[in-house]
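Box 4.2: Ligand-aware structure prediction
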Amino acid sequence: MANDLFAIPIEQLRGVSTQKAGELHALGVSSVGDLIEYYPFRYEDYRIRPLIEVKDGEKITVEGQVATLPSLQRYGRTARLLCRVTVEGMLVTAVWFNRGFLKDQLEMGRHIHLTGKWDARRRQITVAESSFPDRGGAKTGTLQPVYSVGGSLTQAWLRKKIDEALNQYGAMIPELLPAELLDKHGLMPRREAIVRLHRPENTSEGQEARRRMVYEELFLFELKLQAYRAANRKQPDGIAHQVNNDEVRAFVSALPFTLTDAQKQIINEITYDMKRPYAMNRLLQGDVGSGKTIVSAVALYMTVRSGNQGALMVPTEILAEQHARSLSKLFEPYGIQVALLTGSLTERKRKDILASLQIGLTDIVIGTHALIQDDVVFRRLGLVVTDEQHRFGVNQRSVLRRKGLNPDVLMMTATPIPRTLAITVFGDMDVSTIKERPKGRKPILTYWVKHGMMDRVLGFIRREAELGHQTFFICPLIEESEKLDVQNAIDLHAQLRQALPELAVGLLHGRMTPAEKEAAMVEFAAGRTTVLVSTTVIEVGVDVPNATLMVVMDADRFGLSQLHQLRGRVGRSEHQSYCVLIADPKSENGQERMQAMTDTDDGFEIARRDLELRGPGDFFGTKQSGVPEFRVANLMEDFAVLEQARDDAAALTAESEFWTSPRYERLRAFLSREALFDGEPLD
Ligand code: ADP
Ligand code: MG
């Protein structure tokens, strides 16, 4: 393609030596097109502002006239050049350090531009840069782009090369977006936007240019996703569940509580999905305690009633056992058989369960990773649910799914992330969000205390115990050593037993046998122990509504989302609940997390801050890496645009014209250039 800027090697630009070209390559710039799209990450402000607006110590740029003869003073190795300049009719002192050579150029009456730090009291500018308008080339009045540079490349050189490239090749910058979208959103043409990004006349122009490029970047990204979706359109080869609405209504009204509107709404969405002959792929996200389990229970009920089996996979044994207990109880009156499959079953028990699954005697199986082993075979798997799905890798989920013939899939997570981000990260799926908690729940009051305040924490535990409520006491997690971790829990348990002789104090940690663990959980859930000292094994999913106090020892060792999960173990009833974080006030980055925890108990807000503190890659963990990196767009700031871009891309790709009309040839070329179809399919 003759007019493709990306086909013109950077070496063809005047003044780009082999060495410079090498250094540009290191920045990812190998063609003129790359250079033109090498955007600044910020701007240096050389605009003139009235002195009266400038605060003491701020950086300013002024225009003035030399009013006195300069004087040059030397202090040891430092040379100080002083001169008065009239600015806006006022005498201002300009001071340069080690710029003695300027002395002869400071002629009386000559116009001069000064940029530097303003000392309001002395009316003095410590000059960082100065220039004479009669010489030309002044930056005054402009915003200067700042690029990331490396090696021997300087800002000035790069600015110049980009300027030259824009002047010489700018006319060749193609428009990528269809005119109707530019109109719809009032976006400037691409060529103009790129020029303005490099050389904005003012801030709002820079922002407008950025807005255009952010939209384009997100739109193209969404277009790729949508085109992929169109090319892999779902086939009607899933299970069309036969759902009897009256039966479901009866099931729901027999529950010990009334569903929230959000729960009802999502059950409706799921019912709709499950009835259709397309395989459901739905992510249900809802903050800790929002009541996701019961939603999945209704879905499991529906699959069983239409002659299928359901599987519920969870990340920990403790959670599997809890779900097995509560779901067995829930389903018992309906004659629905629930089995628990974990790694710690005896071989005989396991064989029994596998056999009854295979012949269809077991309706619902709940388990850990043990569910995805080869010898687990279903007679007719209709629905796969994963709880706390962010704990599973993509593979684990699809292995379970493949144990059926395109079963419906429901994934649940308490790590709430914005819908569009969920799709960009987890692939193509529908997303439901529970935003409200069951009625009567009070916000969890959270305190951050020092280690020295243990006595007051003990007093707190006693007070809650007097009200008949229970406490979780979480011990620090020691990453290097599970052994130390366990020792900590054992020590703390001993201490608390001594300090609280009147209360029953239980213990739970990863080195206990599965039977011991379950016993400890059952004792606590039944209220026979008042305090449960535990490691983070109870972090996700555990549901003991009577527990109202969560104490986290050395809270600064935990991540923000993890702390929020732990806190979510309380606040599960109408009783006021509390979370006490014991943390060293001097711990450096702990502070921000403790602050965030005391500021809010809204999981969405916590997730947002966590994402901010850690960045998307880290936030989603290595398993979910592949979070796209954008050049101009910022997923945190530009969500609204991402949503808009997604809708636009969906609408466009839905039209047959998009795939045929010459008007969209450029976009189609973009799609095929992006090698859309040779990557891993989205989950
Ligand atoms: P999570 O979304 O964290 O998994 P759970 O499903 O464990 O939350 O529900 C939290 C608690 O709230 C449980 O004890 C559950 O029985 C209860 N619950 C769920 N839905 C409601 C509701 N609509 N009204 C009252 N309590 C509810
Ligand atoms: Mg849960």
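In the box above, the bound molecule is adenosine-5'-diphosphate. Residues 47-141 form a domain with the OB fold (Dihydrolipoamide Acetyltransferase, E2P) fold (CATH 2.40.50.140).
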